[in-house]
Every structure is written in C-alpha cells, then in structure tokens.
Amino acid sequence: MADDLHLVTFRVGTELFGVPISTVQEIVRVPVIARIPQAPDFVKGVINLRGRVITVVDIRTRMGQASPAADARDAEEQAKKARVLVVEAEGRLVGVIVDEVAEVLRLAAAQVDPPPPMVAGVSNQYLKGVGKLKDDLLILIEIEKVLTNDDLGAIDELEPAAA
Q1: Domain enclosing residue 135, as ranges
Q2: H or E stretch including 153?
Q3: pTM for the full predicted model
Q4: How many angstroms separate the Cα of 151 from the Cα of each of 28, 86, 120?
C-alpha cells in the first residue's frame, strides 16, 4: 500500500495520461479563456478562477500532438468533456487543458515500468513511466516538467499584462 501511486488520469487524443494527485489543485470545466497577444502557441490565454488570474496551457500543443479533425457535432461533444487541470508547477498555479478527465485511481508501483528507451529522449523528458492497466497503458508524466523553466518564465511575464 505504501508504494501505491495516487493518480488523476486524463486523455489527450487517444492516449491516457496520469499525474500524481498531489500536483492537481482542482479540476474545472473549461471557462472563457482570455487570449493574450504574442503568447507562445501552447498558451491558450488566462482565466479568472475565483479572483486569481491563471495562465492556461494546451497540453496537446505543448506535447506536439495534432488537433483531431472533427465535424461540428464531434467538436461540441469534445468541448463538453474537456477540462482544465489546475496544477502547481514550480510554485505557480497553471491551468492545463485536457480532452477528458478519466478517473482518480491507485496504481501499485510494481505496475509501472520506466519509459521505453526510444521515448525517453530529451524531448520527452517529462515521461516518468508507463503504467499497466487491465485494458490500457497509462503514460505517467511529470506535469511540472512539461513546462520548462523558460516556459514558466514566459508565463510569468504574461500574467501581469493580463491582470
């Protein structure tokens, strides 16, 4: 039991990802996002969450995944499932848009393998491991490493302008 991982799992495209529940402050529906001029591509904008201005990042863009081609009805269904994970990264709250939050689960450390060598390169340094579920594989990521220190610095510069 002590080696169990407590995870929030979510989907981006067809992939299932997991992050430690301790990094997730809350999960909210996608609110109106105010765009910020000249922001990096992966920054969707900022939201007002109970009086706090929080930068929102599109994890799909940040991880280099293409947006799904969908008709209007599919896009509407996808938008209903999308959520913002409010996470702490280097002492800052950042919103991360995901396609769908799957579940909160407990995974034994024995069910996790290190990332395969072919995906453990520098560009995928945020991968922590691969969890084996009954019918699926769960890619464990360190959400705070998805955003580099340079990214977080750029976000810091954007927030005062948005306030």
Answers
A1: 4-162
A2: helix 149-162
A3: 0.81
A4: 23, 16, 21
